Amino acid sequence: MMKWNIQAKSKAGESIVNIQKILLTNRGISKSEQDKFLHPSLSDIKYAPIGLDGRQLLRAAERILQAIKKKESIIVYTDYDVDGIASGTILWEILYRFGAHVLPHVPHRVDEGYGLSKKGIDHVKKEMNASLIITVDHGVTAHEKIRYARNLGIDVIVVDHHLKPEKKLPCFALIHSTKLCATGVAFLFGQYLYDFLKVKRKTQKKSGIFDAEILQYLDLVSLATIADLVPLRGENRILAKFGLELLNKTKRIGLRALIAESSLRFGEIGEYEIGHVLAPRINALGRLSHALDALRLLCTPNKERARLLASKLSSMNRDRQVMTEESVLHARSVVKAYSSYQKKNGRKMIFLADERYNQGIIGLIAGKLAEEFHLPTIVVSKGLEYSKASARSIRGVNIVETIREAEELLVDVGGHPMAAGFTVETKNLDELEKKLHKLLEKKKPDMREKEIEIDALISLSQVSYDLYDLISKFRPFGNGSPEPIFAVKNLIVERLRLVGKNGNHVKLLLRDPYADLAFVSQIEAIGFGMGANVGDITVGSHVDIAFTVMKNTWNGSSNLQLRLRDVIMSKVIKKTIR
């Protein structure tokens, strides 16, 4: 059970227009912004407001043109997650289109680690004779590695979105914005390059900001934007919205194969399908093996090869799921419970280090623990000399900023306010844990009980296709753009049954005893993962529910269904009206 924070009330019979006003107000969207929010346009995206420096864009483009003319070896040096693979795909394909001698390099998580490494730089110099490296989704903190590359005669262009330190980066050019994911930055840089290279080759005059050839990459942009959990406001929302439309009819062979392998249907791919089905498959290779095949999947024009690669990604993802479940069970047994852990340790975070945790899944473990116990969580894959760690946070705790305050104990660190990663010498783990606990004690993070933000208290009669259509205007949902949540009180449970494997989910048929017969009086609701939490609720119970509205399609027909976020016994039960 969670604390309900109901932001507004809507009276029975109140119009959809009024509910729309409530949703816009709850999201802090002013009257002047409402039209752009409800009717977004790609023309609203400009370089400068995003933070892309025009001088750096020009400098990078000129260096790339020089490399193309001189037939230099260019390396697109990616990260190994969805954002890194998608952004690397965009830049590799654009450069290849213009005749560049360009190859991708995807680092191995264990052998090379995150981002630029001396081993990786040595490899591309020796095997590919690289003279220009373009990093994507990393590099903004790689001062030492960039200097190392320069000493080998390699220029480095950094394309990144992570928080950059104050110290100036010794790269040739920096294409950087914290407002987008790396794929969004690469998409805009790709458009700039496309214009620049076409103008220099005098094949076409410079036109509007987006060419049709560049818009084809929006499917990859939406995939990465949603998977990387960047805030879906402003430019991100626009890119994700139009990208989802393209993803649902994509012509990219690799994505089509992955969608088919995942048993998804075109026209029904949304935020959930990206976050819980497609992205985990792409990420699985980088977590447990080598992510180069994920990039090959996105780039291949061969249908049979795409099918085989998609099958490989799905198989690896199943292995990842099993490994994650086992590790989370172990981690949970160590932590036991939020209250007992805090009582025993008197501390404000979870810090777990174990040599059995695979470094490819420690972020997943940390995320599950942070959500379950409502504590900032750091999970460490313990090594003999060096250990890798991943951190996930809660509201009110900037985890990367906190970790950087202990930077003297670290080898490297990077990330975002809600998620970070770092490398530490194993001998420093105990000292690091003590320091981080002290830092969090000083910050006094918000450790209150979990809350659920509810947009409005409504009546069951207001749940309609008109409401569903209104909700759809607010898509895509994600970080910074929550799916509207409503509450209805004093419903009667007409039917209750546990469904799914091991009865993990609960399905309810709910009736409003006060509804006018002209309106909806009963509806079906499902609570995923709530099978073990129904408590004393039985048929005949009066309950209050918090929910989202979804459309359930089956055998060509559809109906509205409520997706439960929380269900509790009603505190006040009025006399039933029949």
Description of the structure:
- There is one protein chain.
- By secondary structure, the chain is an alpha/beta fold.
- It has three domains: 3-39 and 451-569, OB fold (Dihydrolipoamide Acetyltransferase, E2P) (Beta Barrel), CATH 2.40.50; 47-208, inorganic pyrophosphatase (n-terminal core) (Alpha-Beta Complex); 336-443, Roll (Diaminopimelate Epimerase, Chain A, domain 1), CATH 3.10.310.30.
- 41% of the residues lie in helices and 21% in strands.
- It is built from 20 helices and 18 strands.
- It has helices at residues 16-26, 31-38, 47-50, 54-69, 82-97, 118-128, 143-151, 182-200, 212-215, 218-227, 234-247, 253-261, 271-288, 292-299, 303-335, 338-345, 362-373, 399-404, 429-443, 465-472; strands at residues 3-6, 73-77, 101-105, 130-136, 155-160, 173-176, 350-354, 377-381, 386-392, 410-415, 419-425, 451-454, 456-457, 486-499, 505-511, 522-527, 542-554, 557-569.
- The strands form four sheets. It has a five-stranded parallel β-sheet, sandwiched between helices.
- It is globular.
How much beta, percentage-wise?
15-25%
- Mean pLDDT level: 90
**Strand order in space, largest sheet:** 3-2-4-5-6
Count helical runs: 20
State the end-to-end distance.
30 Å
CATH topology of the largest domain: inorganic pyrophosphatase (n-terminal core)
Instruction: Give the oligomeric state.
Output: single chain
> What is the top-level CATH class of the largest domain?
Alpha Beta
Second rung of CATH, namely the architecture of the largest domain:
Alpha-Beta Complex
Task: Specify the biggest β-sheet.
Answer: 5 strands, parallel
What is the number of E strands? 18
When the domains are counted, the total is 3
| Structural class by SSE content | alpha/beta
Question: What's the helical proportion of residues?
Answer: 40-55%
What Rg do the Cα atoms give? 25 Å
Contiguous low-pLDDT stretches (5 residues minimum) are: 203-208
Shape: globular
